[in-house]
Amino acid sequence: MIRLYNTKTRKLEEFVTLEDSKVGIYSCGPTVYSSPHIGNLRAYVFVDILRKTLEINGYKVMNVMNITDVGHLFEEGEEPRLGQDKLEYEANKERISVWEIAKKYTAEFLADLDALNIEQPTLVRATDNIQEMIQLIKTLEEKGFTYKTNYGIYFDTSQFSNYGQLAGGKDGIQPGVRVEMVEGKKNPTDFALWKFEPAKIDLPMRQMNWWFEGPFAGQLVKRENWSRVPTEFRQTYGFPGWHIECSAMAMKYLGDAFENGNFRGEQSRTIDIHTGGIDHIPIHHTNEIAQSEAATGKEFVKFWLHNEFVLVDGQKMSKSLGNVYTLADIKQRGFDPLALRYLFLTAHYRDKLNFTWDSLQAAQNALNNLRVTVRDVKSSGSGMMDKFMEALNNDLGVPQAMAVFWEAVKKGNGEDILKMDKILGLGLEKYLGKSLELPVEITELVEKREVLRKEGKWKESDKIRQALEQMGYAVEDKQDGYKIKKSWLRKARVKLKKKTAI
C-alpha cells in the first residue's frame, strides 16, 4: 500500500488510482527565461522519485510536465519589471527573439535533467497549446465565470464556491501576491485568463501574441495579416494567463478533455496527481482548480503533492543576497551533479532543505565513499527490498530508504543495491563490482612507487603519492598490497577554496 500526503485534505491517504494500474502525473515545469536554480531542481528530483516509486510498485506512469514559454509575468517584489512577460524581457535584454530564449533555456533545463539522472517526463510547451487555452476560456465565458476589463478576460472567483480550498480556505489566499491589482477587477483574488495587447498595430508589439476571436483564432498575430482581420477582432488579441496554461495542458494530455482543439469538459477525466512547489499552493494551483472545475463540473485532481523550499545558509534564495545557485555553479566548484541529487535525498520532500557548500561537500564525500565501496560488491545478495519499499511507500520516505540502502551496501547485497538505485538514481551500475580502470601513466607511477617502497626509499615514494593525489588518485596501503581509488573529494575541495578566496 502506498500512502501519500494530500495537500488538499491535509492528511496521509492511501493512494488509489482512478484507472486500474495507470497513473497520470502533471508536474509544474520551468519558465524558460533563465537557468533553473537548485530550488527548482529539487522539485524535479522529487517528481523523479515519485514516478519511479510508482513504477516499481507496478504502475504504468504518464508524467506530463509543462514548459512555460509565454504568459508568465514578473510578480510583486520584482519591480520595476512587474507586469512584464519574463521571456519578452529576457529577449530584449539579450537582443534575440523570444523563441530563441525559450530554445536556449529549454536545452539547458534538459541538460540539467540528464546531469541529475532524472528520467525526462513528457514535455509540453504552452505555445503549442494556445488553441486549447482559448477553447477553455470560451467555455468559462459561456458558463458565466468571466468578465472583461480593458486589460483582459478575468476569472470571477466570487462565482466559484470552493475557491481557496487547497490553501485552507479563502483566508489562505493572499490578495496582491502574484495577482496584479488592475483597474476593473471585481475582487482582489480574480485573475487573468487572457491578457489583451493594445489594439494599435503602430505600437511596439510583443513577439508572442495570438488572435482570440474570429477566423484566425489561435493563430500567431503577424503584422502582415493585420489588415485582413476585421476590426472587432482586433480588440482581444493577446496572450494567455499563466494559470490557464497548466489547466488546459493537464486536461488535454491526462484528462482527454479536447478533441481537434475543441473542449469537451463533460468527458474530462480527473487526474491522479499534480505536483509542484509549496509556493504554488495559495495562487497558481488554487487558480488551476477554480478554472478547471468551473469548466468541467468535476474534480480536477485527486492528489496534490508539494515539495518544500531549498534554503541557502538558512535564508531564502534571493538575487539580492547573491545566493541563487544553478547546476552550473555546482559544477564550476568541482562538484559532481549527482552529489546535489544525493544531498536532496537526505531530506524528506515536505521538509525544508538547507543548502550549504559544506553540506554539498559532505554529500560529495558520501557519494565518493559509496562508489568506492560498491566496487568490491558482487552482483549477488538480496533480501532488503521489502524494507526499502516500505519506507518509500510511506509518503516517499527517502531518508529512511537511504538508511536501508546503506545497510544493503555494507552487507554487500548487490542485487538490492542495483534495484534500489533504479529509484535513487545515483548511477551505481557503472561502479558495482567493477575494478577501477587506471590510465597508463597512473599505473606506471603506482608501480614505480611500489618498487621504491620495497627498496625503503620512503621520501621518494611519498613524492609519488603526492603526485598521484594531485592527479586525482589516492593510494591506500594494505598488508597484502595496495588499493587505488579516485579522489574526487580532494579535487572538489581545491576548487572550493579557490572560489571562496576570490
In short:
The protein has 502 residues and is an alpha/beta fold. Helix content is 39%, strand content 16%. It has three domains: 15-307, HUPs (Rossmann fold, 3-Layer(aba) Sandwich); 313-430, no CATH class; 440-501, no CATH class.
CATH homologous superfamily heading of the largest domain: HUPs
User: Which regions are unreliable across 5 or more consecutive residues at pLDDT < 50?
Assistant: 489-502
Separation of termini?
A: 52 Å
Number of helices: 15
Largest sheet: 5 strands, parallel
Helix content: 25-40%
What this model shows, in words?
It is elongated, with a radius of gyration of 27 Å. The chain has three domains: 15-307, 3-Layer(aba) Sandwich (Rossmann fold); 313-430, no CATH class; 440-501, no CATH class. It starts with a strand and ends with a helix. With 502 residues, it is of the alpha/beta class. The strands form six sheets. A five-stranded parallel sheet has the order 5-4-3-12-13, sandwiched between helices. A four-stranded antiparallel sheet has the order 6-7-8-9. Strands 15-14-16 form a three-stranded mixed sheet. Residues 489-502 have low confidence and may be disordered. The chain has 15 helices and 18 strands. The protein has helices spanning 38-56, 86-94, 98-115, 130-142, 242-253, 281-296, 327-332, 337-345, 357-374, 385-392, 398-411, 414-424, 440-454, 458-470, 488-501, and strands spanning 3-6, 11-14, 22-27, 60-67, 122-125, 146-148, 152-155, 191-196, 238-240, 258-259, 262-263, 271-277, 301-307, 310-312, 315-316, 353-355, 473-478, 481-486.
